[in-house]
Amino acid sequence: MQASGLTAWELCCRRGDRWLFHGLDLALVPGDAMHLVGANGAGKSSLMRILAGLTPPSPMLLPEGAARVGTITWQGRVAMIDERLSLDPGQPLGKALDFWARIDGVSPQAAEAHAALLGITSLMDVPVAYLSTGQKKRAGLARLLGQNAGNWLLDEPLNGLDVAGVALIEALIAEHRAAGGTAIVTSHQPLRMPDTSVVNLSHAGPKGARQIADEGRP
Amino acid sequence: MTRALLAILWRDIMRLLRGGKGGAGGGAVLPVLFFLAVAMIFPFAVGPDARLLARVGGGVIWVAALLAAILPLDRLVAPDLEMGFFDQWRLRGIAEEWVIAVRMVAHWLSFGPALMLATLPAGALLGLDGHMLKMVELGLGAGTPGLAALGVMVAAVTAGLRGGAALAGLLVIPLAVPILIFGAGALASGGTAGLALCAAASLVLVALAPFAGGAAVRGAR
Known about the structure:
Chain A contains six helices and ten strands. Chain A is α/β, with parallel strands linked by helices. Chain B contains ten helices and no strands.
């Protein structure tokens, strides 16, 4: 298992003149998991993208009108799945996954084992565009496992999955944590993750943050 | 890193040759057919005067090449941005600049050599003589990498925009003017000075495109 862990200070996200969250501090040590909850539009996916380093955090407003940008420090590699699959829709699933396997240096045996674990072995010849929502989610998880990263960012991993699929994800997360990995998960559906900190972005959201913003205005 | 870039290059080439977002469509054949069609239709429009055709034929081939290079712009960058490929590459520490540089190579490989081959029958259709044909081929060899770089750069800039595909074609044409002037200008003067300037303009574009394109992709997230 890769090294894992996260320290993030003073993360802010601003959409227009609305603060989704302001001054958010997060920390994860190996084996930790965090469940992000919040209403639609509360900023869960925005936080995921900021944590993944895909979008920069907004500068934090300080009372004297100065601004400071939050910091994110990961230990080890970060893997993410979200609603975008990043698999060529016209390709058979096997070939589409092979592309990432080559980049991540996954051995054919390991790739086969991941496919068997996720129950997509029989789908390898099916074009990605023809897969069902749940099957696509499983394919995305196969890519995630191949990356062998210490830290997982899972944005709505349960969408479209059947009961067995949900249980599978719960088991995968538990196994990943037991091996010393970390996971940050957003989900509207209930997800059994024992011993998990829950961060509710609705509380870090517009109302409280707007006050901060107003105070910060020169 | 090298392993990843080779995998990306291979995927890019296969995708551009096969064509289409989902694997359907013309791929590399379509721009070449388009190029030949333009060269073929031109004599119908200006009449069968062989001397006139031979004089303007080189320029026609250049314009046709430019138009053919514009055809695949909409699937160069935008689909990968939409499907999250650039996000996944970023997570693996592969910089956007590298991906754009690789894509530039793939884009050129998918239309450059084919276009230079198709120039032979197109030149015959337009009645170009041997020397003229040689100058056109040399010019295309120097100029098409620049056209590829320009195409990828503009495709990256317009990737995040609605209706970006149409805008991309519109943006490439004026920016391609230096290559066109020097490349086609070499035909009229007959010297190599035009070719050298065409190659220089091309080289500048090739050197700039990965950085401009990479920044554009980051901005489009």
